[in-house]
Design goal:
The radius of gyration is 16 Å and the shape is elongated. Helix 2 crosses helix 3 and helix 4 crosses helix 5. It contains five helices and no strands. With about 100 residues, the chain is an all-alpha fold. The chain has a single domain (about 10-85), classed as lambda repressor-like DNA-binding domains (434 Repressor (Amino-terminal Domain)), CATH 1.10.260.40.
Length: about 100
């Protein structure tokens, strides 16, 4: 069952990981081995969680990479479903 309007994983990252630990974007980016710009894009919903970023987050926060990718997938799928009726697709049936 799909969640109703799931949050962007960057929002989850900020609220459940960075803020409780008192981490700045700069400090978190340095610990993750990415640029501040890269992390900021994720946190602001301008970029998604890539498989590599999911692994980095799993190492840094002792979580699973799959959980980060699942969040990203749920977020993207929910937004794609909002445009379902606008898609020009024909149903295929066996002859």
């Amino acid at each position: 069952m799909m969640m109703h309007n799931p949050p962007h994983p960057g929002e989850v990252l900020r609220e459940l990981c960075l803020e409780p630990m008192g981490l700045s974007v700069t400090a978190a980016a340095e610990a993750l081995g990415v640029s501040r710009k890269t992390l900021s894009a994720v946190l602001n919903g301008k970029a998604g969680i890539s498989p590599e970023m999911a692994v980095r987050l799993s190492i840094a926060f002792d979580t699973s990479a799959e959980s980060w990718l699942n969040q990203q997938s749920q977020y993207e799928l929910w937004h794609a479903e909002q445009n379902r009726k606008a898609l020009k697709v024909k149903r295929l049936v066996a002859a």
